[in-house]
């Protein structure tokens, strides 16, 4: 018997009975591999949403009015390119430059109507104040400051440029959630429903005291 055949016999593949017993296991492995491959292909790349602002350019400094050193009001934002099938929109505003394990969250807005084309300047953080008509139904979630509403850049140390991301998500289904979600809870609810995404980034550097 050739050497190769002897080796097969030693591990049990040299006789027909062993091969017959092994066949169902091999078939099952192929089915599992196929299912895993299909699952990996099931999540398409989100469509690109273009996010802009009349108050600042992408990658450029945020005006001081939109920071804790100024009026601390939310900036105006606009977006285009939400894909067909968008049912709701979400905004998350965060600072990955912050000295925290995760990006520090400055603002969360969800259940934004799919018809909305942006957010106006100075949205009130007071839940008693109604959202603008174009944003009826939208909810402001809990930020890293443990409260709802916008709070602008406030770097803990001067002399370092921070990058503030305003990320817009398009969802293919309305979120069945309650008010008061934070970013982690919101992302969990959005999982599997993101069909579009885009962002604009503004910078801010707190100046040393004079």
Average residue-wise pLDDT: 85
Classify the secondary structure makeup into a structural class.
alpha+beta
Radius of gyration: 26 Å
Strand order of the largest sheet: 1-9-8-4-5-7
Question: Would you mind describing this structure in some detail?
Answer:
The protein is of the alpha+beta class. Helix content is 20%, strand content 26%. It is built from 3 helices and 9 strands, in the order ααββββββββαβ. It has a 6-stranded mixed sheet, with helices on one face. The N terminus is likely disordered.
Question: What's the short version?
Answer:
By secondary structure, this protein is α+β, with helices and mostly antiparallel strands.
Topology:
Elements: H1 3-10, H2 16-40, E1 47-48, E2 50-52, E3 77-80, E4 88-95, E5 104-113, E6 118-119, E7 139-140, E8 161-171, H3 183-190, E9 194-205
Parallel strand pairs: 1-9
Antiparallel strand pairs: 2-3, 3-6, 4-5, 4-8, 5-7, 8-9
Index terms:
210 residues, alpha+beta, 3 helices, 9 strands, globular
